[in-house]
Amino acid sequence: MEQFSPILPVLADEDLDPRAAAVFEDIRATRQTDFINNFWRVLAHDPANLERTWGELKELMGEGTSLDPLVKELIYVAVSTVNNCTYCVRSHTAAARAKGASDQQLAEMQSIVAAANKTNRLAIGLQVPVDEAFS
Amino acid sequence: MEQFSPILPVLADEDLDPRAAAVFEDIRATRQTDFINNFWRVLAHDPANLERTWGELKELMGEGTSLDPLVKELIYVAVSTVNNCTYCVRSHTAAARAKGASDQQLAEMQSIVAAANKTNRLAIGLQVPVDEAFS
Amino acid sequence: MEQFSPILPVLADEDLDPRAAAVFEDIRATRQTDFINNFWRVLAHDPANLERTWGELKELMGEGTSLDPLVKELIYVAVSTVNNCTYCVRSHTAAARAKGASDQQLAEMQSIVAAANKTNRLAIGLQVPVDEAFS
Amino acid sequence: MEQFSPILPVLADEDLDPRAAAVFEDIRATRQTDFINNFWRVLAHDPANLERTWGELKELMGEGTSLDPLVKELIYVAVSTVNNCTYCVRSHTAAARAKGASDQQLAEMQSIVAAANKTNRLAIGLQVPVDEAFS
Amino acid sequence: MEQFSPILPVLADEDLDPRAAAVFEDIRATRQTDFINNFWRVLAHDPANLERTWGELKELMGEGTSLDPLVKELIYVAVSTVNNCTYCVRSHTAAARAKGASDQQLAEMQSIVAAANKTNRLAIGLQVPVDEAFS
Amino acid sequence: MEQFSPILPVLADEDLDPRAAAVFEDIRATRQTDFINNFWRVLAHDPANLERTWGELKELMGEGTSLDPLVKELIYVAVSTVNNCTYCVRSHTAAARAKGASDQQLAEMQSIVAAANKTNRLAIGLQVPVDEAFS
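YS: structure for the whole thing
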């Protein structure tokens, strides 16, 4: 589909500086796929940010933490929905599906995002005071 | 703690109209506690909205759906954080704890919310085009 | 109620520069009250912005336009709720009441804000394509 | 116009389960048109959410409440603008026009949304303390 | 690229009323270019808002104030990124480049926007109390 | 000032685990002050996130990059204002002042944030199509 051009070009593998190339290698090894999506290919213009951001996601989103990887991916999609980031909703919904999310789970998660947005505004708009129990 | 007054007063049980009183009874039965928090006590000025909103949360947030109740509560806190709703962050964090969330799980969830907010802005600010694979 | 201090101090009438003083005079004449709320008293540190902002609101929010002053005030509260601006929700709700808004109208407006926030997120989260009829 | 595919497919009438079909029938009867827009056709994957959401909008947005239907539609567009929901801005602007909104009223409403966004940020950024009168 | 139509049509020079035409003349003189971008061409339907908005930007964004024009343009892009305004991110990034912004500066600014979004959510989500020193 | 308690307690120096203590030492050395603000004291419950977040800010916000440290701090305040993070607006405004920001520069930056929020909503609400020149 035709889209606007990014602010900085999508970099091909042969255009990477060595620090960025090393990150791409780690992404491929971690995800066990050759595919590197555009987010990383644009971020690669700033290798320090690429390293930090990939390092952060690798540390946070994998196995072996207190939350299940699928749960974490659903939280990621929920946040991306509230922030209205098309790229992120689409890429992290795909990631959630790859981790086993069913259509029903995705629809249910979005129902909760919608309900929370509704009650968030009611609490703000009506200026509900925090209960002693929650203070 | 001293707080601003709400837009519509916090209603005591004796001030409720019958429709609102019936909802409060259902909240108490469902949650198995006598405590009704201020959100519902302010919303009670509009019984139709109270019925709809409680009905929606009761249907969405309980057992027996495709997502675990604790997972759903964590998603609720995540959304409330992005929307910056103090009341909601505090009340739903309390609810998550009541459903078994550990400090570590809460901290981890907030790390993911933070990371998603970061990458959401990078995707938007750099205008990253959606990959064919996600389109 | 005890509050944090503003970034720039709340200016008393005797601390105003002449441009700011002239704006305050116009606010008082337009609103037919001596009371000047803190928003203008902080903004008065930047007389150019004070002039522009007061001029804009005076032009937009009064009588004689295609929308009723109360309707405009309700729209103002709705926007302030979505942006979660406590100061603005409170001051513009007070303004709406001064223009005749009933408790019921305020509650109804907030119900619509809440419902719109809910369906906004569903449209975004489910990536609903725009219908031919709306394109 | 070419667009990204939704997270869950747009359902045709023949693909609906009976609960969703009943909602569609009610939408058609209420709106007195055969046209069902994509929002409902995607939401139809989750009949419970479809029922709740349609029920809520039907109850809120019609005649016979304390606010005029056109006013309510303008508030809906205002909220959708702040949330940056393209689908919602476009579909509810169309709805506002169908209820009689003129170009001038739409432009005026957007001017107020813009002005409110401006003053919301000033109140937040300058940390203006809430006046005693609004507390 | 094919796009949705605006809510009000993009006006050609020959369709302007005299007040709007005078603003366009001033934009051309100030920017020393014949090009008038779509934002102004749509806003021209509401000459009062066009005058106010152009007047505000002309006063704020030029030379001779306490902040450098390039710095001001970077702040503008940062805000537009948080608000997820595609039109604004793209047009103000172009303006920043015209004022001398390098790719590195744009990437660095976006890194800061991303980091701020991250820590903003942590402060909100963890409900960090304001230090005495900042109160 | 009395405030709500944080989700996880503010940690004193003697309560830190060794990884968190090492970060605090680095913060003190970098900032050349003994003062550690509450943000880090709450984040210290999650030493991995503390390390990542401090490392990111240290790398981004100091001297020796393509943008001036004061400019970067102003961008940080601008983003925090749009996100309505009271803690962040207050702490980063203090940081901007420590780096030399005058009252006039802070007021001017907030005027730009406000104007950008205004034009962002107009571009979104009127659905202004992106010009060929910016695509």
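YS: worth flagging: The mean pLDDT of chain E is 97.
IM: good catch. Also Residues 40 and 50 of chain E are 7 Å apart (CA to CA).
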